[in-house]
Specification:
Distance between the termini: 20 Å
Radius of gyration: 10 Å
Order of helices and strands: EEEEE
Largest sheet: 5 strands, mixed, barrel
Strand order of the largest sheet: 1-2-3-5-4
Strand content: over 45%
Helix content: under 10%
């Protein structure tokens, strides 16, 4: 999971549990998402990279370009 890229489908920010879609296991799957940098905001459509994975469905992400 770590290092995979995806996109934000539910806004990520302080006090929010966001959602991302990541290409994994030959398909696309949704994960609950938090920013790796506390307080960072990511809007829907932002390209992300997975920095940390907590099974079964939670990831910590950073902006892929930025």
């Amino acid at each position: 999971m770590i290092g995979l890229q995806g996109r934000v489908t539910g806004r990520i920010g302080p006090g929010l549990v966001g959602e991302v879609i990541v290409q994994v296991r030959g398909g696309a799957e949704a994960f609950l998402a938090y920013p790796v940098t506390p307080g960072e905001r990511m809007e829907t459509g932002t390209q992300i990279v997975v920095v940390e994975y907590q099974a079964p469905r939670t990831v910590y992400v950073a902006a892929a370009f930025g």
